[in-house]
Design goal:
The protein is mainly alpha-helical. It has seven helices and three strands. About 6% of the residues have low confidence.
């Protein structure tokens, strides 16, 4: 899948909507998700619309494809380089954490396949509107793993956002 399409799919799936205002898209990408800076986000919107990935109707944006069929990797974060955008402003640096990787490794150690883990965590995240680390903890808990020792770490990671 094209990186621009993947980015649009990841955004709309994260938001749980199929139509947003241009301002909501702008704020979501640059401020909420912190994928890139404001200048890069403006260029991203322009490229998505001109490339036919998003359709603009007045102030509203909607994808021109079914975002549910996109295979968005867990923790997906596009970069300006990946999208072919000449970087105008540096994106804010996300906190470095390996919690999600640790949780995925824990899931694999109890027999949950990586792809199943990703699909399940994404479903929990969307259904409950929680951060991805929290969704991963819930999945592990529901599969019999004692996650009480990791709750504090998850809180710290989420609180830094």
């Amino acid at each position: 899948m094209d990186p621009l399409e993947l980015t649009a799919a990841a955004f709309f799936r994260t938001k749980g909507k199929n139509v947003v205002t241009e301002n909501e898209f702008f704020m979501g990408v640059s401020m909420d998700l912190r994928w890139m800076g404001p200048g890069d986000t403006k260029e991203l919107i322009s490229r998505l619309v001109s490339g036919g990935i998003l359709e603009k109707d007045g102030e509203y944006l909607r994808p021109t494809f079914d975002v549910r069929t996109a295979d968005v990797p867990i923790g997906f974060k596009p970069t300006a380089d990946m999208l072919g955008i000449k970087q105008k402003s540096a994106p804010p640096a996300p906190p470095a954490d390996g919690l999600l990787s640790e949780l995925m490794a824990e899931a694999e150690s109890i027999g949950i396949k990586r792809k199943d883990f990703i699909v399940s965590v994404n479903a929990i995240q969307k259904r409950m509107n929680v951060d991805i680390e929290i969704a991963a903890l819930l999945l592990l808990r529901d599969n019999g793993v004692d996650v009480t020792g990791r709750c504090g770490n998850a809180y710290d990671v989420v609180a830094k956002r």
